[in-house]
Design brief:
By secondary structure, this protein is α+β, with helices and mostly antiparallel strands. The chain contains 20 helices and 36 strands. It is 30% helix and 19% strand. The longest helix is centred in the last third of the chain and has 38 residues.
């Protein structure tokens, strides 16, 4: 493939390590390793995007400072346009932009994903022997030096895991700029600054982390030529302002007709951080995706068709539900908190445990001595067989201050993100949601594009820190289908309400009021009846509600939004109805939602749902369809390029070396085997250690197959010397291991040795033959020496 200039919207960067490296996870293995290398969901080392983003930005700042003759000038201010400004630094921001706190932050034009092992090799590692993943790293000891004495300090021995020299990683990047001229500016600075990246990770000033950063297929000569031709920094064009003129194909500002739903599926490719609360230095995440995060993608997709749907969003004729985890092949629903199950049961909804479940809205908790626990979290499907809990992970990060080059409190220090894991026990984590639209809006979209819903397909970046390590997902839209719901009024005048998403309810003064009374007033107004909380006299509960506080975040300004107080999804209550319920109004409220911000999925309810109105033992299951779980996002195999193949060969060599050492130690541990192969006799003390030491010295010269003749001549010289020949039981057996290439491989079988590259076994035998011979004799000499010393000790004890 030819060189590319300027950089396209999507491109790849390659990170090649020229020394051992360590990018830590912030954790260790108690009693064994003090610092572990960070690994991804496939247990492979990688470089987080935040680390790569930081070192690349630092290199770009140094480049632009040089172009500005050592000052902060117009070149240096372009760094903010490419990598985003840093409002957290305030007046200490290098470009000086945020000395005025009223200036809006600049979003990053480049989106960098984590640097991982390239896909062709990655697929082979995941499908081959696990030992390959183990040789990617090794344990390196270290000590702390006492600055006063210059000696190692007592009790400061440590062990750190480091990844191997020669590692090749690749990262996907996306560059979004407002114009072609801006693309040339960004391309030149990115290509040139990538050449200035020399090291990253821990101990990078003490030899570790030496690396090269390359943009794959980038034209470096063109980038340097552009910088030489433009001595003055060009102006960065302003982003185009959104206008409403693109909506000219929409002729109506209001929509009617039945509801149509578009099922949406989200497959996570990176962890997803949906922050809702900060506790200390830990940002906690929701276990679902609010519709708020997906709504901008929908509006942009429809805008590309020339349709502005913002009016439909404001009028509540376009609704995007929260994305919940997939359960049994369908969109899960929050477990109603009116259910109580026996404590300590892993699957309380299974048929064998369903007898102990109590629905406290229609049952009085039995006094049978069984400890029961409220089901407060998780998601349930129409199969009603098990509760699925979203897998969560915790990752630690830090912000490095430029001056001291380490995390400090002023720049944010060390912090952790809780996030949804992209995999769960080897399977991909899938979320499902649905987009609801009025039929007239669907008709307007269909006039522009017959398969308009396909515009929603593609990659989306969601949640916090979506420009680097988090939030990447693939969105797949299914064909539209009519929305159907048939909530029927009950003959006893009761209305069972189940909140299936958080609801934002206010009182007459528009103040948040997350209570059942406020919800009853709003529901009564929408349904045209009067609702009051049921007053049960048989010991059943009438309401079970929980309140959720949402501390949301403004991405553009990097500042917190006003806190939201909501009735939490899963809350249940029973109302007494005064008046006649209209089934059509019930269906309309189920479709549209209740309370504020319903277009973002808040306020979704279910009326008289069987989970609430029937006993758990009488639940009826929906017909089960064959469900095929999504595999984890395994990369596709393919040919490896030269650099990746070199790294794969390095892994093969390291793995074979480890296996050779183990095999040689097994052979050497057996005195009878040593005597059979080499003729060495411990009882007779032959050969003596003086002769074995000389052999070891000769074997140290065996570094390639061409060095064998020197050792053979030395052995032949011994054979001609009668005095020395008598000390060797069988020189011919020793000579056979040096002279015959296949002799060592007869004792160290290679049939079960895994490989990654073509013709690896043949090539590895040739390359590792000197190592195998040296290791074999070294292990045998050490074992022979130990047994000789043991025999001599026994003789001295017995006086012989």
């Amino acid at each position: 493939m030819g060189k590319v200039w300027p950089l396209p919207e999507r491109f790849r960067v390659r990170l090649i390590f020229e020394s051992d490296w360590h990018v830590g996870s912030g954790t260790g293995r108690p009693g064994a390793v003090d610092r572990l290398v960070i690994r991804d969901g496939d247990d492979l080392p990688y470089v987080p995007a935040k680390t790569l983003h930081g070192v690349w930005r630092d290199a770009c700042e140094r480049l632009c400072r040089a172009l500005d003759d050592g000052q902060v000038g117009s070149w240096s201010r372009l760094v903010d346009q490419i990598f985003g400004s840093q409002p957290g630094l305030g007046g200490n921001n290098p470009s000086g932009r945020h000395q005025d706190p009223a200036r809006a932050p600049i979003p990053s034009a480049i989106q960098i994903r984590p640097a991982r092992i390239p896909e062709p090799l990655r697929s082979k590692l995941l499908q081959s022997d696990r030992r390959f993943r183990q040789v990617l790293t090794f344990i390196k000891p270290g000590v702390k030096i006492d600055p006063r004495s210059g000696a190692s300090q007592t009790d400061f021995l440590r062990f750190e895991e480091v990844a191997r020299r020669g590692t090749v990683l690749e990262a996907e990047c996306q560059l979004r700029v407002p114009s072609n001229s801006a693309r040339e500016v960004a391309s030149a600075l990115l290509v040139a600054s990538a050449m200035l990246v020399e090291r990253l990770g821990g101990k990078r000033r003490r030899g570790a982390g030496r690396c090269r950063l390359e943009i794959v297929d980038a034209d470096v000569a063109a980038a340097i030529k552009w910088l030489k031709q433009n001595s003055l920094a060009p102006e960065w064009p302003e982003a185009e302002q959104e206008t409403t003129s693109v909506a000219s194909k929409v002729v109506s500002a209001s929509y009617d007709g039945p509801w149509v739903c578009v099922p949406l599926k989200l497959m996570l490719e990176e962890p997803l951080a949906v922050s809702f609360r900060t506790v200390g230095n830990i940002v906690e995440s929701l276990d679902f995706i609010p519709g708020t995060y997906l709504l901008p993608h929908v509006t942009r997709a429809f805008k590309s068709l020339g349709v502005d749907v913002r009016q439909a969003i404001q009028s509540g004729d376009l609704i995007l539900l929260p994305a919940y985890p997939e359960v049994d092949g369908e969109r899960g629903m929050p477990v109603p908190i009116c259910l109580f199950a026996r404590k300590g049961v892993s699957q309380p909804l299974s048929k064998e445990n369903r007898q102990s479940i109590v629905n406290v809205l229609i049952q009085r908790e039995p006094n049978d001595g069984t400890q029961r626990k409220q089901l407060r979290e998780g998601y349930i499907s129409t199969q009603q067989e098990h509760i699925y809990k979203t897998p969560m992970i915790l990752r630690t990060h830090n912000t490095v201050e430029d001056g001291v080059q380490r995390p400090t409190r002023d720049t944010g220090g060390v912090y952790s993100y809780e996030a949804v894991s992209p995999t769960d026990q080897g399977k991909a984590v899938v979320f499902r949601t649905e987009l609801r639209l009025r039929q007239t809006l669907v008709n307007s979209l269909a006039k522009v594009e017959e398969k308009w819903w396909t515009k929603l397909n593609g990659d989306v970046a969601l949640g916090r820190s979506k420009k680097d390590d988090y939030g990447l997902a693939r969105l797949i839209a299914a064909s539209p289908e009519p929305w159907t719901a048939a909530p029927a009024p009950r003959a006893d005048g009761l209305l069972f309400v189940w909140l299936v998403s958080d609801a934002l309810v206010t009182n007459e003064r528009l103040r948040p009021e997350p209570t059942s009374q406020a919800l009853a007033k709003e529901l009564g107004r929408r349904l045209g009846v009067k609702l009051r909380l049921r007053e049960s006299s048989n010991g059943c509960l009438n309401e079970l509600i929980r309140v959720r506080r949402l501390d949301t975040w403004h991405v553009g300004w990097g500042l917190p939004r006003p806190t939201l107080i909501a009735l939490q999804a899963g809350s249940c209550m029973v109302f007494q109805v005064e008046g006649q319920l209209d089934p059509d109004k019930l269906a309309e409220v189920e479709a549209r939602g209740i309370g504020l911000r319903t277009a973002e999925g808040f306020g979704q309810v279910r009326f008289n749902h069987p989970l609430l109105t029937t006993l758990p033992t009488q639940w009826s299951q929906a017909p089960r369809e064959s469900v095929k779980s999504e595999p984890a996002n395994l990369p596709q195999g393919g040919p490896m390029d030269e650099q990746t193949q070199e790294f794969a060969r390095l892994l093969e060599i390291e793995l074979w070396k480890q296996e050779i050492r183990r095999a040689c130690m097994r052979i050497a541990a057996d005195a009878g085997k040593r005597e059979e192969l080499l003729g060495w006799d411990v009882k007779k003390g032959m050969p003596p250690m003086s002769q074995l030491g000389a052999l070891r010295g000769q074997l140290a010269l065996l570094q390639s197959p061409g060095d064998k003749q020197q050792i053979i001549r030395w052995l032949e010289h011994l054979a001609r010397n009668n005095r020395r020949r008598e000390k060797w039981p069988s020189l011919e057996k020793v000579k056979g291991f040096i002279e015959l290439d296949d002799r060592i491989w007869e004792q160290i079988p290679t049939e079960d040795r895994p490989t990654l590259t073509p013709d690896a076994e043949k090539l590895l035998k040739q390359e590792l033959w000197p190592f195998a011979v040296r290791t074999f004799f070294d292990a045998c000499i050490r074992a022979h020496k130990r047994e000789l010393e043991g025999a001599q000790s026994e003789e001295s004890v017995h006086g012989t």
